[in-house]
Amino acid sequence: MKKISNQGIYKSPTIQMIKIYTEEGFAAGSAKVRPHDKNFEVKEEWQDLPDDNRNIDW
Questions:
Q1: CA angle 27–33–38, rounded 5-degree value
Q2: What is the DSSP string of 1-58?
Q3: Could you give the CA distance from residue 18 to residue 2 in angstroms, rounded to a whole number?
Q4: Which phi and psi angles does 29 have, rounded to 5°?
Q5: What pLDDT digit, counting tens, does each position of 20-56 carry?
């Protein structure tokens, strides 16, 4: 009687790495940070806002 094997050929696990090179300043114009208000006064303290306790469905 011939034994039939359902197992395939073993392939050892491998790790692959892909390097992606982007241009300098990628998405540099997508956001602007201005630490001052309309009168060009810089705020030196944080606003204490209440905690945001809500459920967000993903």
A1: 140
A2: -PPPP------------------TTTTGGG-----B-TT-PBP-S---PPP-------
A3: 45
A4: -95, 10
A5: 877 766 666 666 777 777 888 887 777 777 888 888 8
